[in-house]
């Protein structure tokens, strides 16, 4: 996927576990299929997962995510991974890595959701609880600020998608997002990466867990609206908007900025991961197909 990506094998994981956490050396190691773009994931036994960065610099994020997970642990109405251990770099593997608790569930597929309205309510409850957490000493989330720095990169990426999508409609929505008033209130807690690959649902379609807190922090809550265009089908998307308005005072400006985050994430991801990460391409395509259907006079 990336020019400087390193390969991580089952044998690498067995060696790292055996030398640093010998109490788990007898447990089975097997790779977990993932849409992930920065970490390799390996199941360890029945109740653990090993998370290993495979691009330079991302190992810095392991202590950051650990601190966030420990701060949020026990605060939400659904499961998040428990931090069991952090591993260190060695002569063969160059980054800090982590062992987390395994969370059961399946990635939601919008077209196959058993109870989309129930999932809406569950996710809104998570966002509402996050909004209640103290923000003192919390870092800025990765998608915490204005969209303006992405204006030209997104327009350039859109040019690669001309003829494949209704890029005139996408440009209209992107310009509208850039024109929306910025977040003027105090920054709030964000997960900041609410894609289907970071959510788990149970057999009834209800939210069972929220994964991958590496982007989390505080900032403008509009980026949480990635979920509107990536997780929910159209009818549930409007319910999501209404529930957020009821519980968290979602306004039109935040909805417009959130649409911009959905456009930016999908437009930048699709050409970059085409041919290397089919899952990311599928998610980006689904989001853009939904976004290009927004009527010209609808905000």
From TrEMBL:
CDD domains per the UniProt record, alphabetical: APH_ChoK_like_1
InterPro entries in alphabetical order: AGP_Transferase, Aminoglycoside_PTrfase, Kinase-like_dom_sf
Domain of life, source organism: Bacteria
Leader sequence segment: none
Keywords: Transferase
Boundaries of every Aminoglycoside phosphotransferase domain copy: 35-261
GO MF entries: transferase activity
Protein name stated in the entry: Aminoglycoside phosphotransferase family protein
Organism lineage: Bacteria, Bacillati, Actinomycetota, Actinomycetes, Micrococcales
